[in-house]
Design brief:
Elements lengths: L1 E11 L2 E2 L6 H4 L2 E2 L2 E14 L4 E21 L5 E24 L2 E15 L7 H7 L11 E12 L10 E3 L1
């Protein structure tokens, strides 16, 4: 049994717009983005390593998230804006069991959610958040899951006298 916990802090620097556009866009700076991330979990093996169960819980508190937005107007005007703060949490459970030698079943389930806070009313993303209450951050899935079966048996187990393995 392995139990673990971590707390980490990360950041993305602020700056000035670099992609052209009008003078107002170019002169508008954006603030740093920061995140505190907390994780606790366990990794366990049972029954002479034939069953493995891992569980993890995470919480991330993001401040001043930066978003690249396409601004209205002639041409392509892209700017970075600090749009909002967000709290994100998630849990993940994984299990792997050796049913018989050479046959393994695996399973994983992940759940996560986020809550937008302190939405910057001047940021273009603010309108999207207000009009789409179920909106999630880019690349953010509410749940994920997998289930699988692996078979790796010598061909001789099937009566074949050729060296090699059957893989499925």
């Amino acid at each position: 049994v392995l139990l673990y916990a971590s707390a980490t802090r990360g950041f993305r620097a602020g700056g000035f717009q670099s992609g052209g556009g009008n003078a107002l866009i170019i002169s508008t700076p954006y603030q740093p983005e920061t995140v505190w991330s907390y994780e606790v979990g366990t990794k366990t093996d049972f029954f002479e390593n034939r069953l493995r169960v891992n569980a993890t819980a995470i919480l991330a508190t993001n401040k001043s998230l930066q978003a690249a937005v396409l601004l209205p107007g002639a041409g392509v005007n892209v700017a970075t804006q600090n749009g909002y703060d967000a709290d994100m949490w998630g849990i993940e459970l994984e299990a792997q069991a050796v049913i018989i030698d050479g046959v393994t079943v695996n399973f994983a389930l992940g759940l996560q959610d986020q809550k937008f806070k302190n939405i910057n009313p001047a940021a273009q993303i603010a309108t999207s958040i207000r009009t789409n209450p179920g909106l999630r951050g880019s690349g953010f899935a509410g749940y994920t899951g997998t289930i699988g079966l692996n078979v790796d048996k010598p061909l001789t187990d099937f009566g074949v006298q050729t060296p090699g393995n059957f893989l499925l």
